[in-house]
Sequence to fold (167 residues):
Amino acid sequence: MNIELGPLKPDPSMLVLGLAQLFLLMFALGVVLLPRIERVRAQRWDATEGRAERAEAVRAEAEAVRDAALHEITEARHEAARIRQEYTERGTAAIAAARAEGVRDRELVLATGRARIAADRTQAAGVLRQDVGDLAVVLAGRVVGEPVHTVAAQRRTVERFFAQPID
Fold:
């Protein structure tokens, strides 16, 4: 195939030299310049997009940690409320038991006091009857003007006096 290009017809030695220089230039670009360009492009991407992705990952991790901490706090609050409720119930039961024991002690003290008062009243009534009887005999002796000595007379007089209803 013989193509006539006229004045544009290249010299074959110049064509081979131009192609060799083209391949040498492409090789130099591929080995030296393109890796540098790729490295700079990767650094720029890392400086812009990479930091954003890392920041997003750190933010997601922080949210996960925050959610876990909030969950633990919620569980701790529920546990504290349960413990407070349990000890409130225990306290209420202890107060009720102490109150019941206090009521029992009060009733025992009141019963003992009433029994002691009744015994003292009975004893005082007996002593008072005897003293009233003695004083009545002495007074009767003064009123009559002569002593009343017989015990039987004293007793009958005193018993008649106490047997009369009080108006």
About this structure: The chain has two helices and no strands. The chain has a mean pLDDT of 85. The helical segments are 12-144, 151-163.
